[in-house]
Amino acid sequence: MSVAAFVDQAAILAGAGEAQGVASTVAFDGVSVAYRGAVVLKPLTLDVAAGEILAMIGPSGSGKTTALRAVAGFVKPAGGRIRIGGQDVTDTPPHARGLAMVVQNYALFPHMRVFDNVAFGLHARGAAKALIDERVTHALGVVGMSQYAKRYPRELSGGQQQRVAIARALAVRPKVLLLDEPLSALDAQIRRAMVEEIARLHAELPDLTILYVTHDQSEALTLADRIAILKDGALNAVGRTGELYRRPPNRFAAEFLGRANLLPVVVDADADASGFVAVRAGDHRLVVAGSHERTGAKRLLCVRPQNLTFAADAVHVNRLVGVVREVLWQGELTHLVAEVGGALMRVVATKVADLPSRGETLEMFFAPADASLIAEDAVG
Amino acid sequence: MVEATAAPGATRVDLGALWVAPPLIALAVLFLYPLTLIAHAAAYDASDALNMAAAWQTLNSRAFVNALINTAEIALASTAGSLALGVVLALIISFVPFPGATFVARLIDTFIALPTFLATLAFTFLYGSAGILNGALMQTFHLSDPPVNFLYSSWGVILAEVTVYSPFVLRPLLAAFSLVDQSQIEVASLLGARTWRIIRQIILPAALPAAIAGGSLCLLLTVNEFGIVLFIGAKGVITLPLLIYDKAIQESDYQAACVIALVNIALSLGLFTLYRLAARRLGA
User: Fold this and answer.
1) pLDDT classification of A379: cutoffs 50, 70, 90
2) What pLDDT is attached to residue B158?
């Protein structure tokens, strides 16, 4: 095959929006899905920026996989439109959407060798042999599976099969990569390694837009630029990963995205321009991040377990006193559960010089910036 | 170290080994003894004298060669037809959602339970000389002779056998298709594959062992098919089972019948061996 022909082939695929570097947006515009009249996804409006990793998380039945399948074209929305790269694809069949997908059980074709698995999409899109060879070699190299090209899927471990599945998806240079719980079938150790690999992969392919569905909040926190939390078929919260973690908008988001201590408090004085507000929890007077708060309003104070310390300093100025109920040593971490005015507060510490015993009084400190307020009725 | 040894002269009888006796006796009485009788009758003539020349003459006869060719042609064509029809029906029932798909599958299954000549009888009513189709055509076009005559040829036999034996292919294919990972199909379609490529490269390879198993069984049954061929009574369509019947019952030439029967048995066992080898190799 001549260089010109090779370039022509690449151009053909690029014309379909498949060239790497052509980052695409995804837009859910009031997308709803119903099965036999039962609504499983309530009207969802959500935008995914080009080159972004958006993680959709939520418990089983929350609608996250349904939303992903609507993007793929496997389920037809009952309402709303889906746009990829600005183009309405709601009525476009899956094979013409220019996407690729990696699923939980890998879905490798068992009768094909690794090379043929990875080449499948390129064959389907009519790529020339030289381009197929180049793309497959590159994709296998990216996931570190070059030496396994001649093996059958059954001859690979779970982690290796998942790498091949990722290579197969990358080889077609998709507009958007859909990942549907891709690591759920792997054991914990391999899963951690694969999360890091996907993070490295996205660093190497920064223009690749990824829609990542998972129920594992640690995967979402590690990989996602933004996180959308779904609950009961509806969007519960969405935001930049760090912000959503530090300032969850409601109780469900706070508790689903990592562990959260939620302490009932009453606003002690109107919030001022500083971005901090004084609150009272029983006898404890605390200062936490907050604005637009009115005196006397009932709120839930949200502070993450790792943000509580056992000693005060210039930053950790808020003080809580409780009674130790549980001491759980877990090797790297020690979890202490203390009761503060009827609410249980969890503290996670990496080093504890003298472990307190159950029943002992425990002082805990946290920084105002590490705590936020959630409206009590905003239960998500 | 002290080792326990059996006392000299003491013999232990493993009574468990006796369980092998009933099947061996049944095999000997029901299969091996009749087979020996057939083999004996094939080599000895009516006066119980060894007569290999007569056996050789039967094998060289035009009737035998024609029957062998007819048997092979009809069996292969029927198997190919059953495979084609079975694959198409199984694909539609499994992958094209329509109301009543399960009922249709069950209905086709019932063919397995019916006697083979029943389809032939139905075909006679439909496509026979005095059947519905010919009657309608003759009345409509004022014809004096029935225009549709395929039923009384090899094609009639093949059509009847395809109708009767397709379920033998359909059933294992439906089972195999139900095991095809849906996510493989979805991933393939998202990678750009259209329906035909998915069928060709994803679904059919996954169902190949089932197709081989069903097809081999079909071939085995069509080689030995007697009822359909006899019932249709197509002129010049003589297969090995029918020739055995003719020789034994019509001509009372038992030696020739037994020689042909031995060939038929060898053919069946050979096909069965191939079927088992293929099934084992492909994991069916």
Assistant:
1) very low
2) 94
3-state SS track over chain A: CCHHHHHHHHHHHHHCCCCCCCCCCEEEEEEEEEECCEEEEEEEEEEECCCCEEEEECCCCCCHHHHHHHHHCCCCCCEEEEEECCEECCCCCHHHCCEEEEECCCCCCCCCCHHHHHHHHHHHCCCCHHHHHHHHHHHHHHCCCHHHCCCCHHHCCHHHHHHHHHHHHHHCCCCEEEEECCCCCCCHHHHHHHHHHHHHHHHHCCCCEEEEEECCHHHHHHHCCEEEEEECCEEEEEEEHHHHHHCCCCHHHHHHCCCCEEEEEEECCCCCCCCEEEEEECCEEEEEECCCCCCCCEEEEEECHHHCECCCCCCCCEEEEEEEEEEEEECCEEEEEEEECCEEEEEEECCCCCCCCCCCEEEEEECHHHEEEEECCCCC
Q: Does domain A259-375 have CATH number 2.40.50.100?
A: yes
Cβ of A109 within 8 Å of Cβ of B192? The answer is no
pTM here is: 0.80
- For A:42-101, CB contacts with B below 8 A are 72-74, 93-97, 99-101
Nearest to A107 among B187, B193, B201 (CB): B187
Is A89:B169 a contact under the CB 8 Å cutoff? no
Q: Mark yes or no for CB contact B190/A125 under 8 Å.
A: no
Interface test with chain A among B187, B189, B281, by most A beta carbons within 10 Å:
B187
Is pLDDT above 70 for A5? no
Q: What domains, with CATH codes, occur in chain B?
A: 58-282 (1.10.3720.10)
Q: What was the ipTM of the complex prediction? A: 0.83
The CATH code belonging to domain A3-246 is: 3.40.50.300
Higher pLDDT, B17 or A125: A125
Q: What is the mean pLDDT of residues A81-103?
A: 94
Task: With beta carbons under 8 A apart, name residues in chain A contacting B99.
Answer: none
Q: Which two tokens stand for residue A14?
A: 């690029």
CB contact under 8 A, B190 and A111: no
DSSP β-bridge partners for residue A226: A54, A240
Given a cut of 60, whether residue A158 has pLDDT beyond it is yes
Can you tell me the mean pLDDT for A203-231? 92
Asked whether the beta carbons of residue B192 and residue A125 sit closer than 8 angstroms, the reply is yes
Which stretches in chain B have pLDDT values below 50? 1-4
Look at B192 and A105 and tell me if their CB atoms are within 8 Å: no
Taking an 8 Å cut-off on Cβ atoms, the answer to whether A107 and B201 are in contact is no
